[in-house]
Write the structure tokens for this entry.
Amino acid sequence: MGKYLCKKPAYHFPIAKKGKTRMLMKGNLTKAASSKRAQGKAWKQTPYNRTGNKAPRVDRLKWKRTFQYLSSLNEYDAIQVLKDDGLMPTWEGAVCPFCSQGKVGPLTKRSGGLPRYRCKRWGCQKFITPQHLHPLFTATRGPEGHSLGVQAGMLLLRLANVPLSTIHVVTQINHKAIERMEHNLTLVRKKFVEETQRTMSFGGKGNKWQDVEVDESVFDKKLIPIEEADDPTKVMDWEQWVGMVQRGKPESLVLLRLTPPPTKKRSPGPGPIRRDDWKKISDRWLKGKHVILHSDSARAYKLKIPGVVHGSVVHKKRRVQVGKKWVWQQPTYVKIKKVTLPGGRKVTVKIGTQIVDRGWRFVKERLRVNQRAKTGSLRIIAQIRSAQYEYWNRGKDMWLETGSLMRRYMSNIIAQK
């Protein structure tokens, strides 16, 4: 009789130490963190956001318009709805864009065509479409021409971050019309964000100390032709940005583009921010602002700045010696620290860069890096600025916020007479 091998039952095997199997085999998947630090009284009593509000829940948001309502509107009703929401301006009473002398009359319905404005000047009498000079809505014909109701529904889907390919599949709208609207929307947002960011500043009212997080991120890279490179061994160019945000205030997100030097082809990244770059940024945004700065352990952030108290965490797995044994120390993402302010007052805060890291994830989810949007191109900069605009208005009705944006943009184009 030969040997018979009995297979060991599956439940006799040890539980996996990591991975999805480990997660499923745990007895209690909802138990709280078991570390002494997380269970401590000081940890529970110290909030991460000392001021401001928490991030809103997306499942509780409601916008003013719906896709079913917008797509069912006829041309005249769509014009009235868009005018009420601020997405389309009125040309009535404005200077004629053709003759620059006459005054534009009211919107009129025509028996054989679509609603139009008309110049009152005797030598002009030009008809003006409601979409004239508008960056988002068009009055074209052919495959790219669609009614205003359909265009408004397409814009609503785009504001809800529906992918462009999905919008094309669901609505059967020409893909070039969708891409044109997307491109123009990012350019309008880019202009608004750059103008608004110049007027922003950090710090609280009445010299109140605020928590500000800072970190840098890389979005893309490209090879530099050898004949254009200063050093033939360093031919990799990077799209690197630095971001700062005040805790509890998403509309304070500031993004600044860096120009790191080229690196070797197989380099994992451009490296941390340089000291010279950080000094210029800190003097402009943080100097004398009464800020508790949270960052990682990059050397440049250790620069002493008047009016700034610094706290950092180490985002790196390190090998340290405990007694006579070398062990691996896990990265630290959040820790409690007692900060002594210049006046002598002590404040207990949680040091970390969790909010700005989520901001980078928010931006990267909205980037579409391709042969057109690449390192150094206008498109990738516009996409980053567009994502920054969405982060500023997180938790708000993006339809109405876009209406305010269009009202501001078109006010610089339409001149009232």
User: Anything to note?
Assistant: The chain has two domains: 60-195, 201-395. The first strand starts at residue 117 and ends at 118. DSSP finds twelve helices and twelve strands in the chain.
